[in-house]
Amino acid sequence: MELARLAQVFPNARNIVRAMPNTPGQIGAGVTGWCSLQKLSAEDQAQVETLLGALGKQFEVPESQMDALTALSGCGPAYLFEFAAALREGGIAAGLPHELAQALTIETLLGSSSLLAHRQIEPEILRNQVTSPNGVTFSGLKKNGIPRLQKSRRSRHYGRKSPVGGAFEKRMKSDKINADSPQRTQFRVLAYNLEETIST
């Protein structure tokens, strides 16, 4: 809900803050974007930053950027969890037991994220350090098309007037994404490509 609309709902509020957290905030590892109707006093600014900081990192942005922030960090965990499921299932399809595939997936994601945060360089550089010309990783990245998929999703989401509403929200919150839907199928390309590249 936009700040102007919130101001109508709460006409007696001396100021209003709009915030968009994400689910990793449950363990203090989240990221929250926020904006305010009017410039905050130093005291109010400190209170907002302390409150939202308990969830993880917090970033003040112009309201014009809130839709884009919601599409990236608000929805991003769902994409990452689906990607994790694709990696796990790819490992299982290649012959790994479920518990090992799950553990390898978690540690791979944690380690890769930590490396990205530690090195403070563009992710494409780190990707290229893993990708040997014409190797297994190169083949997998060339086939799965995930960068194009992610760019398309972010663009569609950003263009919405109300990014947390509509069919997108209903699909993601239902936790019943059809196994044959384009959303799941595109991520599964990586999983089954993993099986293919391991066996070749």
**Rg from C-alpha positions?**
20 Å
Principal-axis shape equals: elongated
If classified by CATH, what would the architecture of the largest domain be? Orthogonal Bundle
The whole-number mean of residue pLDDT values reads 81
Q: Count the E strands.
A: 3
Regarding CATH, which class of the largest domain?
Mainly Alpha
Helical content (DSSP H or I, runs of 4+):
55-70%
N-to-C CA distance: 51 Å
**Strands ordered across the widest β-sheet:** 1-2-3
CATH topology of the largest domain: ProC C-terminal domain-like fold
Question: What would you note in describing this structure?
Answer:
The chain has 200 residues and is mostly helical. It has 2 domains: 3-64, NAD(P)-binding Rossmann-like Domain (Rossmann fold), CATH 3.40.50; 75-199, Orthogonal Bundle (ProC C-terminal domain-like fold). It is 62% helix and 8% strand. The chain has 10 helices and 3 strands, in the order H-E-E-H-E-H-H-H-H-H-H-H-H. The chain has helices spanning 3-9, 42-53, 66-74, 76-93, 98-119, 123-130, 136-144, 146-158, 166-174, 182-199; strands at 17-20, 30-36, 56-60. It has a 3-stranded mixed sheet. Helix 2 links the parallel strand 2 and strand 3 (56-60). Helix 4 packs parallel to helix 10. It is elongated. It starts with a helix and ends with a helix.
